[in-house]
Write a structure and sequence with these properties.
Blueprint (H helix, E strand, L loop, with lengths): L6 E4 L4 E2 L4 E3 L1 E4 L4 E2 L4 E4 L4 E3 L4 E2 L4 E4 L5 E3 L4 E2 L4 E2 L3 E2 L4 E2 L4 E2 L3 E3 L4 E2 L4 E2 L5 E3 L3 E4 L4 E4 L5 H22 L9
Length: 177
């Protein structure tokens, strides 16, 4: 296997801290915030992260497939989660210390609860508004009630982070600089 060539495209409006571990071909969209100590590894195929995502501390995002890993807009990856799924829609939340395997595809408005392990035996696509919770990774469908308030809160959260993180952390720019 040839060595991984680093190629970072970080939008000028994105906030990516200097001590983020980036490997491979990674494209980070506008308004996305990547906290210090996060790790994004495009081991085989590239990773494309949409606009307005929040990637918190100790998050690990890995692409082990040759296909492009697409992460939609306004997703929240909470502290210590690990994500390997090849496709993530918009407005999803992966909670603290959750793990999502590469056999899962997430649509829009899905929630994976804290410390949930989502590892289906065969490929699975989560329907819109799916919530995964509990130690057995039970599934249910959310009614969508409160969706507007959640979106507003996430926008304010991202805006606050874009303002505060540069005050206390050095930022990274495109092409590994």
């Amino acid at each position: 296997m040839p060595p991984i060539r680093d190629k970072f495209v970080i939008h000028s409006k994105a906030v990516v801290c200097q001590d983020v571990d980036l490997k491979g071909d990674i494209n980070i969209g506008p308004g996305t915030v990547v906290h210090p100590k996060a790790a994004i590894f495009a081991l085989v195929g590239p990773i494309v992260i949409g606009a307005g995502c929040i990637i918190e501390e100790a998050v690990i995002i890995v692409n082990r497939r040759k296909d492009i890993m697409r992460i939609g807009d306004n997703n929240l990856f909470e502290i210590g989660c690990r994500v390997e799924c090849p496709s993530i829609g918009d407005f999803n939340t992966i909670s603290t210390r959750a793990r999502v395997h590469n056999t899962v595809r997430m649509s829009n408005h899905c929630v994976v609860g804290a410390q949930c392990l989502v590892v289906p035996a065969e490929d699975e696509t989560l329907a819109e508004y799916t919530c995964i919770y509990g130690p057995a990774a039970d599934h249910r469908i959310w009614s969508g009630r409160g969706q507007v308030q959640e979106a507003d809160l996430r926008m304010k959260h991202a805006e606050y982070l874009r303002e505060m993180l540069p005050k206390f952390n050095r930022l990274r720019r495109s092409d590994g600089t």
